[in-house]
Design brief:
This protein is mostly beta strands. It is built from 3 helices and 15 strands. The protein has one domain (7-33, 71-250): 3-Layer(bba) Sandwich (Glucose Oxidase, domain 1).
């Protein structure tokens, strides 16, 4: 049997990639997360006078109509999410910004009301690969996938945390993606979406935020990440991502 090994070549070093793990939350009518009291995911069979989209009712195939809010499931957002005029939406994101090296920070061992620059500054000082994404794992990934976060005062990411990322992007690598298991990088009470605005209103263009991921099987470290959002012209849409562990390197 032929085995395929994925590799990254950076300068004169070869990095080997492990088997990927996906981070999208499972979603169904009976098993789904919830945030901000948004409408729940629903699936109904399509039918009209000429067609029945349900095999159990005699149809030739199943054809379902899905109803959901992206913010209730694993989703990706662009700057259009907070823009007061038409800006970059999901379908505008260049392919080059949808995959790259990521460093995952694991803060799941303790509960934090908010994440500050102190939680990330020393980690970024040790980064030695050209990262494009930063992933943040919190205690949200220790809860069940169908957790209802509404009104629970979940952990949020402070503007100080974002400022450290922006400074790193200016000095070292351009971070185009912030990926987290939180329902939002802002607190549920922050109607101004301060951290979103600071992240998107930056010289680094075509950025995205990916929220409500599920990192239960991922540990701190480097990954090669491929995000797979639906290419729909909107400010936010459901998405998944494959995290390939960077497990070893050969000189």
């Amino acid at each position: 049997m032929n085995l395929i090994t994925l590799q990254l070549q950076i300068n004169n070093t070869t990095y080997l990639l492990g088997d990927p793990l996906t981070v999208g939350r499972k979603t169904s009518r009976t098993n789904q997360s919830n945030c901000f009291n948004l409408p729940l995911f629903d699936s109904t069979s399509f039918s009209n006078d000429e067609f029945t989209g349900d095999i159990s009712l005699g149809g030739s195939c199943n054809v379902n109509v899905l109803t959901f809010s992206p913010h209730n499931i694993t989703h990706i957002e662009t700057e259009n999410h907070i823009a007061d005029k038409e800006s970059v939406d999901v379908s505008d994101l260049p392919t080059s910004n949808l995959h790259g090296i990521c460093y995952l920070i694991d803060l799941s061992n303790s509960y934090y009301e908010k994440l500050t620059g102190d939680h990330i500054r020393q980690v970024l000082n040790r980064i030695n690969l050209p990262i494009s994404f930063i992933a943040v794992k919190t205690q949200s990934s220790t809860l069940s996938e169908d957790t209802d976060f509404t009104g629970k005062k979940f952990t949020f990411i402070s503007t100080d945390f974002i400022e450290v990322i922006n400074e790193f992007s200016t000095t070292y690598n351009k971070v185009v993606g912030l990926i987290t298991d939180l329902p939002s990088i802002d607190s549920e009470e922050d109607s101004n979406l301060s951290s979103h605005k600071l992240f998107f209103e930056n010289q680094v263009k075509h950025r995205f935020v990916m929220e409500l991921c599920y990192f239960d099987k991922l540990n701190a470290g480097y990954y090669y990440v491929i995000t797979t959002p639906s290419k729909i012209r909107t400010d936010a849409i459901n998405s998944n991502a494959m995290f390939f562990p960077i497990i070893t390197k050969n000189s």
